[in-house]
Task: inverse folding
């Protein structure tokens, strides 16, 4: 199942045509509402969610998050923070933040479908706001494993990110949707 913005459904259908098992679903106004919509349709004990803005996902990451479902309700990919973090007030540095234990979340994510459905329904009924599936599941007491992600699994959210992704793809070291060495 692929969830896409309604205005891109026709283009997505063309891209997905070679994959006869792909079902296209029109997305909603936010990624969480799109996931909730897809969960109402999916009939599987588990689900893997990936954000298309991360084109360098690897098969290995998908396998690792899926395997982690053996011991938890969900699994996310993440990389440890390595930048120096500053707490500021306006334009003044107040302190340096200890980054120990802080990770940058990525996709893919894998979830027990029932647990994720319940978390989304609860948030919908309570009018809760969240930054992602992991936050919703954590609020319901679910267990979430963190799998070491890949630094090359970048998120493209700006022109500079796009230029970096283009350079990565053109280098031949990594290719979109396949990861390193494919």
Result:
């Amino acid at each position: 199942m692929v969830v896409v913005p309604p205005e891109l459904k026709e283009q997505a259908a063309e891209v997905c045509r070679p994959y006869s098992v792909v079902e296209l679903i029109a997305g909603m106004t936010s990624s969480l509402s799109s996931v909730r919509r897809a969960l109402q349709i999916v009939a599987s004990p588990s689900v893997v969610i990936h954000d298309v803005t991360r084109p360098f996902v690897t098969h290995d990451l998908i396998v690792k998050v899926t395997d982690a479902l053996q011991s938890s309700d969900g699994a996310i990919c993440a990389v440890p923070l390595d930048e120096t973090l500053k707490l500021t007030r306006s334009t003044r540095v107040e302190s340096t933040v200890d980054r120990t234990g802080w990770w940058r979340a990525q996709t893919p994510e894998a979830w027990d479908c029932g647990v994720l459905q319940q978390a989304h329904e609860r948030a919908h009924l309570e009018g809760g706001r969240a930054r992602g599936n992991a936050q919703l599941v954590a609020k319901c007491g679910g267990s979430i494993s963190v799998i070491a992600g890949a630094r090359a699994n970048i998120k493209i959210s700006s022109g500079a990110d796009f230029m970096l992704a283009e350079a990565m793809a053109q280098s031949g070291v990594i290719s979109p949707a396949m990861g390193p060495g494919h």
